Amino acid sequence: xxxxxxxxxxxxxxxxxxxxxxxxxxxxxxxxxxxxxxxxxxxxxxxxxxxxxxxxxxxxxxxxxxxxxxxxxxxxxxxxxxxxxxxxxxxxxxxxxxxxxxxxxxxxxxxxxxxxxxxxxxxxxxxxxxxxxxxxxxxxxxxxxxxxxxxxxxxxxxxxxxxxxxxxxxxxxxxxxxxxxxxxxxxxxxxxxxxxxxxxxxxxxxxxxxxxxxxxxxxxxxxxxxxxxxxxxxxxxxxxxxxxxxxxxxxxxxxxxxxxxxxxxxxxxxxxxxxxxxxxxxxxxxxxxxxxxxxxxxxxxxxxxxx
Length: 307
Prior knowledge:
2% helix; mainly beta; 14-stranded antiparallel beta barrel; 1 helix; Porin; disordered N terminus; 55% strand; 3-stranded antiparallel beta sheet
C-alpha cells in the first residue's frame, strides 16, 4: 500500500471530514467565474477557460485541481449564463463538481459600468479511498470502511461591479457546507453557515497608451478561521503581455506571466507559487497553467482585457 504523509491524513480525517472545501487559485483575475457566479458575461463574448493547478510539487498527496469554465452574455435579456466544472484531488480524496451560473446585469451608460448579481446551482461529489492508506492499527475505526462516497447539491451567490478600469466583487462559491463523521459517533450534518467567502477589488492605471498597471486585492474568509489576503501587482504591455507579482500573506510569493497569442481570442498564463510557510522544506512550490479562448463573434464594446 502507498504511504500517505501524516499531514495529509490530518487534512483527510481529524474528528470530522468535510467534503466541501474550495480551491486555491493564483490567476483569479483570468478565472473569475471560478470564485464568483456574477462574473459570467463580463468578458462580453463567449469565453472559455481551462486551468490546472499542481500544488506543493514533490509532496505526496498534495492537492491537484482542474477547472473548466464557459460563460456568455445574453444581451437581449440583460443577463448572462455560465458553466463551471472542477475536479480536486488531495491525498486519497477526490472532490468534483458542476455548476450552472446565471447573472442578471444592470448596465449604466456612463463610463460603461455594469452591476451584476449572480447565482449558481450544481452538484458536488466526494469520494475517499482509504484502501491506499497504510495503517498500523487494523482495528482503527477511522478506517472501518474503505470507501466514503457522497453526492450533494450546492449553490453559489455573488455580486460583481465593473467598468473599463475598475472592478469589485463579493461571493460565496459554496453556500452549503456538509460535514461527515468518519468515526460514526454522529450523523451527517448540513451546515448552512458559509465556508468560504471572497471579496475582490482592483483598478487599472494607464501609465501610457501601451503600458497599464493594475493593483488588486483578493480577501478570502473562512469563519471561524482567520482570513487570507492576496495582493496582486500586474503590469500589462500592449494588451498582450502581462507580468504580475502576488503576495499571499502568510503563505506564498507568486510570480505570474500571461500572453495573448491570438488577439481577442487565445491567451495563455502560468503562475508559480514560492511557499513562505513551513511547507517550503518539503515541497517545491506550486505550478498553475491557464488557457483561455474567446469566440470574438462581435466587436467587444468594453471587455476589460485585464480582468
